[in-house]
Amino acid sequence: AVVSTQSTGVKEDCYREAIAIAKLRLSPTHPKLLEIYRLWAGKQEREMQLDSAVKCHLALGDPERAVLVMLRRKDRASLEGAAEIVRIAGLDGWGEKITVMIAELSLEED
Questions:
Q1: Residue 7 half-sphere exposure toward CB, CA atoms < 13 A
Q2: Is the separation of the CB atoms in 98 and 82 below 8 Å?
Q3: How many Cβ atoms sit within 10 Å of the Cβ of residue 59?
């Protein structure tokens, strides 16, 4: 089923195309572009397309939400990627938590 979101007028299965067009015509901080990213991130999270959701949150300038999405996977690559986002974005309080998660994962792998 194709659903149109009223706030943006974008059909739910056309977010990628809508973002491509909006990026050509609007500033990176235009409210409509940010709304499309927000809606697509939510859809991607619901469908467990976590890589795409992370990219949307980063495009929105929300690295903390991107980290939260990455932590849902609980695999080494995702944890290390989340740690890198934390380092680059300077998110306080996350580094130690992720380090503990990586250590716990290492213990489980042994």
A1: 10
A2: yes
A3: 19
